[in-house]
Amino acid sequence: MTPVYWQIATHALTMNDPVMGRLIQQYDGAVLKSRGNAFTTLVRSIIGQQISVKAAECVWQKMVCVIPDIAPQVIHDMDEDLLRRCGLSYRKISYLQDLSLHFMTNKLNVTEWNVMGDEALIEQLTRIKGIGRWTAEMFLIFHMMRPDIFPVADIGLQRAVSLHYFDSQTINKKNMCELAQRWRPWRSVATWYLWRSLDPLPVEY
């Protein structure tokens, strides 16, 4: 699954920002992809908290090897020692168990997600243990495919903005948000290309 707006967004970003235009040209043909599974995306987002893309992918591959069916009931009932051997901390295991319980007991208004605004959906998701704003923003970008999410607290995004727009100098969130105004209403797309410029593999959740 790829966003229907991708071509429109990349054209607009190229017209409005020469630096972004060069990144889009450099990674021509690469696009954001959704796995189409809300639970899996949230699991991968929790795994990816505060670790590198490469480390997160390593943990995920270990999980897939020992748990082919990444489903709420399976994760909730999984032996903690087995999850630890995949590289998960006890804290992240508790987060995944709480997330699983929310899906198992239908505490999330999944049927309403498509009509909820970005901030309303973020507010709902952050009620789940271990899901902060960053994790919710990853979900909105990679599962809901919302076009205008700007995860300003993301370390990788901060590095990429500094590298491409500020000669690798230290920047603050205010500077980043001011810069990102030129990317509206396609800040998710701009963010994806900035991530892509740092990692040999596309970021996926």
Short description:
By secondary structure, this protein is mainly alpha-helical. 58% of the residues lie in helices and 0% in strands.
Q: For this structure, what is the CATH homologous superfamily of the largest domain?
A: Hypothetical protein, domain 2
Q: Counting H and I runs of at least 4 residues, what is the number of helices?
A: 12
**Ends distance:** 13 Å
The overall number of domains is 2
CATH topology name of the largest domain:
Endonuclease III, domain 1
Contiguous low-pLDDT stretches (5 residues minimum) are: none
The helical percent reads 55-70%
Specify the structural class. Answer: mainly alpha
What is the name of the CATH architecture of the largest domain? Answer: Orthogonal Bundle
Largest sheet: none
User: What Rg, in angstroms, do the CA atoms define?
Assistant: 17 Å
Q: What's the order of the H and E elements?
A: HHHHHHHHHHHH
What average pLDDT do the residues reach?
93
Total strand segments: 0
Q: CATH class of the largest domain, anyone? A: Mainly Alpha
Shape: globular
Strand content: under 5%
